[in-house]
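yo, Flagellar hook-basal body complex protein is done. seq:
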Amino acid sequence: MLDSIHVGMTGLQGYSRGLRVIANNTANLDTPGYKASSLQFADLFYTGADQAGGRATQLGHGLATTGTQLDLRQGDLRDTGNPFDLAIDGDGLFVLRPEDGSTRYTRAGNFQFDADGRLVDRANGALVLGRDAAGVDAPLSLLGLKTTAGAPTAVARFAGNLSSTVETQTIPSVHVHDAMGETHELAVKFTRTDDQAIGSWKVELLDGATTVGEATMQFIDGRPDAASGKPSFTYTPAGKAAQVVVLDFSADVTSYAAGNLSTLAMSAQDGRPPGSLTKLTFNARGALVATYSNGQEVEGARLLLARARSADATESAGGNRFVAAGGQPWELGTAGDGGFGAVHAGQLEMSNVDLAREFSELVVMQRGYQASSQVISTANDMLQELLNMKAK
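structure:
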């Protein structure tokens, strides 16, 4: 009977631990990146008793718990509207480096940029690791991304109709950028030279009253001749390096009779002024995308992701973090490559706790605890009866 009380006590202890696991799961029902766990049960060792009829009798010693098992299924993704809240749709965990220099992993991507421009975990300030274009893994930061340099104009494109009946036509407001991104306003002057060939024009690039250069352009049946539709000029802004500027009339320019009315104008150019950072976000590949005031977009480093080779290699460390267990190696990579999932900006992965399942398990734990308690009560009553018999 004493053995029965001991067996009942192991049941009470085991179901108490199971209740604690369920309580922890339900308490973290709304914790981003939380992974539910379940307690694993096993029976204790057996001993042999007297043989009866040639068959051995094995008597168990009760209930044992062999640890908890993580449920690594993906939770629901919830929109937050914060561009630095990140979620992984598929395999992978974000890689963190806390102050102690250790490595931690998480599915909770509630991040922000700190005062030094480093991407950190909002909850505890751990650095978020990324991988640059050279394949180097390091904390992801805004270093080198806060501004972007200007670029000189190489090609200026034009569109519209140059009236074939006018003698001369000047196109103002031809804006180009030098190597430092500074803007210069030039003009293009067309002068008919029909005494040489029908539809022939002299093209001059003007910087104020100064002629930068001249070229000849030919129209055939109202369309620019391919051989002369892209005249090239060498322009040297004051105090700046010389640059080659191509005036592209080849695609959307015509020359038909239109009286004195010409609609020819510059439509686009590929130079740009310097730009300052206006927007940051992450794309599906986990790359940091910086947008600048000059319209340029630049991709920075990509988020570093990791995954364990088996569920046994993952162990909870608190604070929505996981660590590598048992010295087993983890695989590193980036979003969208090698089977890793895609990154979604403005979303967080919520807990994967199934409340209906937890309540079902709660009933089982309660019944098991009650049954173990009843075993102890019954064994105690029987022991008390035995003591009463001896006293008589």
